[in-house]
C-alpha cells in the first residue's frame, strides 16, 4: 500500500528567508559602495518595503529601489545588485541540517516523497536541483502548474492524484500553519509543522477541532515519528 | 577636445558565440543524462533551430525543446538545462585576449570610452560587470533604452549626445559590418572592424565609397592605431 510524505520547499527544506536576507544585504552593500546614497539600514528598510509592496516573486525590486532613491533606474546599480544577490544566494544554498538524512530515512522506510509548493515551477525545481535533493522527489507540484495555491484543497488533491496515493496514507510537512497544515488537513491528510512556533489561537484550534498535526522543532525529528 | 571610442559588446569584447555554444552543449548533455531522448548531435541541431526561430533573447528555449521532443514541458529537464547553461557561461566568461590592456591604453591616451549595444540594458551591464571591465566605460547605450537598434543612426547619435562628443572625433569598434561599421559611418564616425572577415562585396564597397574603416584581426591591434 502506497504511503507518501509531501514537503513544502521554502523555509521547510532550506532557510529561504535567512539566505534571502543575507543576499539582499550583500547586494545593497555593493550598490551603496557603487554610489547608492543611503545608509545600510535605510537601504534595507526601503528594499523590504518594496518587496512587501510588489511581492517576493517580482523580479525588479532593485529597479524600483534606484528609481525611488535617484529618480530614475540606474542599470549599473541594478545589475550589480542582481549579480551579488544571485551569487551570494547560490553560494550559501544548502538544506537545513538533517534534511538529507531525513529524506534518506523516509526512502528507506518505503515512503514516496513529493513537494507541494506555492511558486513558479522552474524556480522551485531549480531550488531542489541546487540543493542537491531533487532525486528524492517522485512528484513536485507547484501552484503555477495547478493554478491553485495552498491552502486551497485543489493543489493537495492534484498532488495526491499524481502520486496515486490516498490522503489518509499521506503526511504534509511544512512551516506555515494555514497554508501547509490546515490546507493538508482539509484535504484529508495528516500534517507535521516544522520551523515554526504555534500561536495560542492555533494551539487552541488544534485541541478544539482535534486536528491531526504534530509539531517538531526541526526536520530531523521526523525520523522518530515516521 | 573630447575624443571617444565606442565598442560593441557581444563578440567584440568577449566571445559570446563561443561561450554560448559551449554552455548550450553542456546544458544539453546534462538534459540527455537526465533522460532527454536525443543524441547530442540531434539535441544541438534542434536547439539551434529553436534559437533561430525564437531569437537568442527569448528565455524559454529549453521549454520549447522539451515540449517538441516529449510532447510537454518537463520542468526538471528545463531547470537542469538552465542551471548548467548559466553556470558554464559565467564560469567561462572573460574578455578576449588583449581587451583589458587595450582599454587601459585608450584611457591612458585620454579617450573617453562607451559601449553601444543591441540588447537588454541590465543584461548588457551584467556582462560588463562579470567581465570585470565596467569601470572603463563612461557611457553604455543599449537599443532597449534608446528604442533604436544598430545600424539605425539614432542609437549612435544618442551615444554621442550622452558622451558630449562630436562624431568626427569618435570611433566605433565592432564585429558586424552592417550594424557596427555602416551604422557608425552613417552617423559620421569612423570605424574599426574586429574579429570578422570582410566579404568581397564589403571590400568593394569600402573602396568604392571611400569608407573610413580599418580592419584588425584582434582587439589588441587597436593599440597601434589609436
UniProtKB/TrEMBL annotation, chains A, B:
Residue spans crossing the bilayer: none
Cofactor(s) needed by this chain: Mg(2+)
Gene Ontology molecular function terms on file:
metal ion binding; phosphatase activity
| Annotated GO biological process | small molecule metabolic process
Xref: InterPro entries? HAD-like_hydrolase, HAD-like_sf, HAD-SF_hydro_IA, HAD-SF_hydro_IA_CTE7, HAD_2, HAD_sf
- Which Gene3D superfamilies does this entry report, sorted A to Z? 1.10.150.520, HAD superfamily/HAD-like
Is Transmembrane found in the keyword set? no
Enumerate the Pfam families for this protein: HAD_2
Q: Which domain of life is it from?
A: Archaea
The signal peptide stretch is: none
User: Which UniProt keywords are listed?
Assistant: Hydrolase, Magnesium, Metal-binding
Q: Does the keyword Phosphoprotein apply?
A: no
Q: Which PANTHER family match?
A: GLYCERALDEHYDE 3-PHOSPHATE PHOSPHATASE, N-ACYLNEURAMINATE-9-PHOSPHATASE
Annotated family: Belongs to the HAD-like hydrolase superfamily.
Under the heading NCBIfam families, the entry gives: CTE7, HAD-SF-IA-v1
What's this protein's function?
Catalyzes the dephosphorylation of D,L-glyceraldehyde 3-phosphate in vitro.
Identification of the protein by name: Glyceraldehyde 3-phosphate phosphatase
